[in-house]
Amino acid sequence: MKIIAFYLPQFHSIPENDEWWGEGFTEWKNVKKAQPLFKDHYQPRVPLNGNYYNLLDDEVKKWQINLAKKYGVYGFCFYHYWFDGKLLLEKPIEQFKDNSELNHPYCMCWANENWTNAWVADKDPKTLMSQRYGDKPEWKTHFDYLLPFFLDDNYIKEEGKPLFVIYRPEIIDCLNEMLDYWQALAVESGLSGINFAYQQLPFYLKKDKDDSRFRYNIEYQPGYALHDMKTNDKDKSSSILYKFRTSIREVINTIDKTFKTNFIAKFAGNKLRLIDFNEAWKSIIKRGPTNNKSIPGSFVGWDNTPRRQNGTVYTGSTPAAFQEHMINQIKNARDIYKTDKIFLFAWNEWAEGGYMEPDEKYKYGYLEALNNALIETGEKE
Q1: How far, in Å, CA of 155 to CA of 355, rounded?
Q2: Phi/psi of residue 376, nearest 5 degrees
Q3: Phi, psi (degrees; rounded to nearest 5) at 277
Q4: What is the model's pLDDT at position 302?
Q5: Which CATH superfamily is domain 2-236+273-376 in?
Q6: CA neighbor of 373 nearest in space, from 72, 42, 126, 50
Q7: What phi and psi, each to the nearest 5 degrees, are found at residue 172?
Q8: Quick one: how far is CA 87 from the chain centroid?
């Protein structure tokens, strides 16, 4: 089973972030300033041995690759930031391509949203870098940048087709024309084509979407799980008996549940949304593929309060729980989805609480849990 982990490159400084967020800004700044907001809230997260690394150091990437190989992370999916020819945070993946010692499978996900200050301005975010898609000349320039990665032996391909993920296809007005042009350019360049994939709910939920250009729909978690949980709750709430039982249950659980979540969170000065990690995973396992394009997702945790004042926290994540869920999801991927891939949130999303890298609390626990799950399911010796 190929576990492909999303990989955030924002662990080195760039001039743009210096201007927008202060000199020397990296994702570690968000991580370090985090505070616990309720009882037993695991913040701040501290990397093992205080390893606040700089991704421009190839020794760091070698360390990451060694961990990934040892514990069963097949590859990385790097976020790619391209704004009509302007690149951001591109150096780590360029070094990955150019240094033969960084030998590990990888692919790219184009994070094609506007770059905003939404972290600190939930209501009225300011656009710092806008997306424009242009026409064939702009598409050609973008493709020409991508091509050396696609041709790299380490780039993830199927039948000669590189895998390229688009974060939010629904906001690209020239989507089909651009993807068709890229397919033609890929064939002209000696490739068999491109396997396009998308990962976010808005395109999946769009009723009039045309996903004919996409080979895969990546079920990005926990986003899909949250949607399914809300939908199931809405369906259940239409039942009179369910409403009655829910009313009784709410009365019984008022002190235990409501106080611990809503009151404590608001008392801390934030409007937090607390969601049970294990309940979310039940929804993930239950989901099943929509069609043969579906690739199952997984997540190790989620807590974006270091980034957002009004954040979301999935409570109850532990290595033991993650291992149990991954065993089920590996079986699910193999037997129900009929695929050899699972996308994992995430390798190093430290400020969103989704990371496999070792920390001071759990050490190598999540990596060991993944490794154990792969061995338990016969996917690794």
Answers
A1: 22
A2: -60, -35
A3: -55, -45
A4: 98
A5: Glycosidases (3.20.20.80)
A6: 72
A7: -100, 110
A8: 20
CA 146/CA 139 separation, integer angstroms? 11
- pLDDT in the model for residue 122: 59
Higher-confidence position of 179 and 239: 179
* Dist CA 76 CA 65 (whole Å): 9
Would you state the structure tokens that stand for residue 307, as one six-digit string?
């980034």
What does the CA dihedral 11, 16, 22, 25 come to, rounded to 10 degrees?
Answer: 0
- What are residue 14's DSSP bridge partners? none
CA distance 81 to 113: 9
d(CA 141, CA 194): 17
What dihedral angle (degrees, nearest 10) is formed by the CA atoms of 63, 316, 301, 205? 160
For residue 363, the Cα-to-chain-centroid distance in whole angstroms is: 21
CA distance 113 to 144: 21
Joined together, the tokens standing for residue 149 give 């990665």
Question: Model pTM?
Answer: 0.92
